[in-house]
Amino acid sequence: MLRLLLRGAAGSARKNGGRGPVAHLQPLRQYSSSQSSGAAKVVAASLLTVGGGIGGTVLYAQWDHKFRATVEKNVPYSDSVFGLILGPAPQNAGPPVRTQLESTQPQSMLEKRAKTSKVQSEKKVKGTTETEAIEPTPTVSVPAASMEEASVEATQIISASGDVPSVPAPCDTEPTVVTGNTHEHCDECHPAGPEAVLHGADSPTEQLVERPAEEVSARLAQQDQDEQNVLAAVSSSLEESLACSARAALQAIGAQEAALQAINQHTQKLKEAMEAESPPEEKSVQWKDLEAALMDRTSAVTDATAALQKANEALDSLRTTIRNSKDLKVAAARPLVLAAEENLHKMAVDLDRVVAQVQSAEAESKIVSQYSDLVQEAKLQFQKEVSSLTPEIQANWKGLTGKLSSDDLNALIAHAHRRIDQLNRELAEQRVREQIHIDAALQQQKLEDQRVLENAVSSSLQHVKEEARLEQERKMNELREVMEAEMRTQLRRQAAAHTDHVRDVLKVQEQELRAEAEQVLSSKLLDQETRHRQLTQEQLDNFTLDMNAAYARLKGVEEAIDSHLVAEDEARRAHQLWLSVEALNHTLKTAGAEEPSVPLDSAAQIVRDSCREDDFASALAEALPAESLSRGVYGEASLRARFNSLRSLVRRVALIDESHNSLYQYFLSYLQAALLFEDQQVAPPTQLSSEDLDPFKLLSYASYCLEHGELELAAKLVNQLKGEARRVVEDWLTEARLTLETRQVVSLLSAYANAVGLGTTQAP
Amino acid sequence: MSERELGRKLDRCLADGVIKLGTGLGLGIVFSVLFFKRHTWPISLGSGAGLGMAYSNCQNDLRSHYLLHRNQKVER
């Protein structure tokens, strides 16, 4: 009996496809009833074998980890066994952890070097501006401002292209002042020429800064001004002193000549007075004239000496002035100085000449005066003799021929004879000593002449020297001027070349700048234009937007008003719809415990009427199933009750389907239902697996759902039943579907009515 | 109601069974009495046949849903 049952159960288990993978349930253990020792031996042997196998496996697993892992994977619960015996599996660190090598690069020396080199290059750049300035100093003795560089370049250009080799001007030349070199070195040029060269060469340590052009020109102008001033002063002083001395010289010359004249006149008069035999009245007149002439002469001579002194003083002052102006070393004053010197020389020469003339005249007059003195002396002596002889006779004895007596006359004649004899003797003596006297006189004269000659020679030598020096000065001046002119031409050429170069550069720059400026201008213009256009566009857009906005608002307002009307209308309609749907909903609730609800037709009709314009609602209203309209629907409670009564029936026919539907199967099914116990209600899982499709389980799920009011889920679950069970619950399912459908439609409608109602009601 | 169908079928089966069993039994008895000298085998034959026919009918009735007749559409 038991075997039969077991076989049947096994067979049914096989046939029942819904069981799923069948685990070999009750392993059929074949009890061995023999109690013989052979069996014990066999058991012992088998136990030993099994133990040995397990021990060997464990040992090998301890040694080989891969084997252990394989065994653990394939044999269940072996990992726990291994863990108990061997301990946890060793953590076989797979690939070794790569320690991260810090790739810290050493402070790149390149960077440092680059930095230092950069600094150096910067320094170099700074330095080059200095050295650049300094480099031309050896070539040009004047330390370089940038102008100097340009001038140097210009000189190089000129020397390269020109035929005249440009001579670097030594600083000695005064033109350095004129050509506008740096002021400091200009000042230094003044005292000593070559000094400046050295100074220029030693100035690399100085920081040369190019003065701005205005300053340079200002300085130049200042220098020019100073020069002009000095020149003016010098010239004025020279002129003054020249004029003064000229005047004085002329005066002196005039005075001297006057003196000469006076002396000559006096001499002449004296001679006349001496030699001329004239009547006494004329003699006295002559002597008076002579005295007058003498006075004139003396006065003239004193005047002349005074004038001469003045002239000398003036000449001395002129000389000092000339020396001072020479000391100033102003170039332009040179010709003036030269002219002044020449004038001075001329005046000195004239003065000397006149003085010499006067002196010669004086010498002559001295001779004549000596002669006259001698004559006078002789006369006096004679007079004395005559007076001693004839005391009563007056001096003017020539007129006294009638008054004298014969004694007197005889005495006189005797005296005269004696005198004549004396004189003849003296004359003879004189004739004898004539030669000696003449020689002595000649000697004296020679000496005198020599002296005079020496004087004249010395003075003329001086004059000649002076003239030669002047000539030299003049020649030097000329040469200097020529050199200066040449230098000027060279510099002019330099300047011309420089100006040309500068002009070219400026032209190029101008072009570049113009192009740039034009580009900038055009770009700016473009920017401005685009901006302007943008602005206008923006304005237009804004205006359009505003207009559109205003129009839209207007439209919106209109629409709002219209929609208000429409909304009110709709609200009214929605209210109606809602009411009708509520009525429909209410009719649903009229379902009793066993009877269906009243037919929904009338309520549905009302709903249809109230939603004639609304497609959705009308569609929904159409969607109500016909059965519900004509017959009504069952309530949930009735369905629940029906299900509960169905359940047992379903349980009883659980095994019946198309293939298993013999009466025996029915019997078996009944038996199963009697013997199988399941939970009354089980919460259905969220996902049904194939195990859950067992009718009993489904029934418990469905029962649970129904108890919890989920008719839909219960219907779904019940829908999973197959075979006869399904046929049995078909009607219930249909009813449930109907109810669900109707309820869905009604809920949709009510929701829709609510929504419409909510949508149309205006919030305060 | 679909759930009542089975009951109805079973009722029919039972009724049918009873009738057939009774009829078989009766016929058996009759035949046994009349023709087969009061042996018991016609009674058991008759009742057995009756029962068998009832069983078969019941089974067919119960299966009838799953078997489509040639000119019959089964409404599910």
UniProtKB/TrEMBL annotation, chain A:
Function of the protein: Component of the MICOS complex, a large protein complex of the mitochondrial inner membrane that plays crucial roles in the maintenance of crista junctions, inner membrane architecture, and formation of contact sites to the outer membrane.
Subunit structure comment from the entry: Component of the mitochondrial contact site and cristae organizing system (MICOS) complex.
InterPro entries linked to this entry: MIC60
GO biological process, one term: cristae formation
Compartments it resides in: Mitochondrion inner membrane
Keyword Mitochondrion: yes
Bilayer topology annotation: Single-pass membrane protein
Stretch list, region Disordered: 91-132
Protein name: MICOS complex subunit MIC60
Cross-referenced PANTHER family: MICOS COMPLEX SUBUNIT MIC60, MITOFILIN
Keyword Mitochondrion on entry: yes
The entry's keywords: Coiled coil, Membrane, Mitochondrion, Mitochondrion inner membrane, Transmembrane, Transmembrane helix
Annotated Gene Ontology cellular component terms: MICOS complex
Source organism (scientific name): Oryzias melastigma
Compositional bias (Basic and acidic residues): 110-129
Family of the protein in this entry: Belongs to the MICOS complex subunit Mic60 family.
Coiled-coil segments: 301-328, 406-433
Pfam family, one: Mitofilin
TrEMBL record, chain B:
Record keyword Mitochondrion present: yes
Residue intervals passing through the bilayer: 18-36
Family matches, as InterPro entries: Mic10 (IPR007512)
Cellular localisation: Mitochondrion inner membrane
Keywords, ordered alphabetically: Membrane, Mitochondrion, Mitochondrion inner membrane, Transmembrane, Transmembrane helix
Pfam family, one: DUF543
Membrane topology designation: Single-pass membrane protein
GO cellular component term, pick one: MICOS complex
Protein function: Component of the MICOS complex, a large protein complex of the mitochondrial inner membrane that plays crucial roles in the maintenance of crista junctions, inner membrane architecture, and formation of contact sites to the outer membrane.
Family under the similarity heading: Belongs to the MICOS complex subunit Mic10 family.
Quaternary context: Component of the mitochondrial contact site and cristae organizing system (MICOS) complex.
PANTHER family from the UniProt entry: MICOS COMPLEX SUBUNIT MIC10
Protein name (record): MICOS complex subunit MIC10
Natural source organism: Oryzias melastigma
